[in-house]
Amino acid sequence: MKIVVIQGPNLNMLGVREQNIYGPMKLEDIHAQMKGFADQNKLEIEFFQSNLEGEIVDRIQECIGDADGIIINPAAYTHTSIAIRDALAAVQLPALEVHLSNIHQREEFRHKSLTAPVCAGQIVGMGPFGYHLAMVGMTQILSEVAAMKQAQQQAQQKA
Ligand code: DQA
């Protein structure tokens, strides 16, 4: 099973940008923790960060036939990008949306997520730990999907 982690604009600046909101942890350290969890649970994991909307759309599209689930923090594009929402809807893979900060507690323009409605769930306000929660959540989703597929196969074999 493979999870692709997609990070939107300015998340490459974690540890430097607005530490009062996003904390001191760097993106590479968050990814190292996620990789540790993936290794322990025998999951494949790949990381991608871009400041460009089109590159994020391309990476989501590339998940077809390659990944089983997506963990995404679309960052500022959360609030603006119909293109990223459409890409997530198009690939029909389970996706979890993560935000380090509690977007619902911040400026009004951050309250709305265009991408959350096409995700299985959203984790906000837990800082870097939110990515760990997303890994736990995605592991659960993937095992449920696998169990469902197995049950369908068994039903087909009996029919
Ligand atoms: C963010 C919240 C967004 O509103 C903001 O534009 C970001 C980071 C978060 O993780 O809290 O860049 O996605």
What does this structure look like?
There is one protein chain. The chain has 159 residues and is an alpha/beta fold. The protein has one domain: Dehydroquinase, class II (Rossmann fold, 3-Layer(aba) Sandwich). 42% of the residues lie in helices and 16% in strands. The chain is built from five helices and five strands, in the order βααβαβαββα. Strands 2-1-3-4-5 form a five-stranded parallel beta sheet, with helices on both faces. Strand 3, helix 4 and strand 4 form a beta-alpha-beta unit. Helix 3 runs parallel beside helix 4 (82-91). The two termini are 28 Å apart. The model has no long low-confidence stretch (mean pLDDT 97). Bound molecules: 1,3,4-trihydroxy-5-OXO-cyclohexanecarboxylic acid. 1,3,4-trihydroxy-5-OXO-cyclohexanecarboxylic acid is lined by residues 10, 73, 75-76, 78, 99-101, 103, 110.
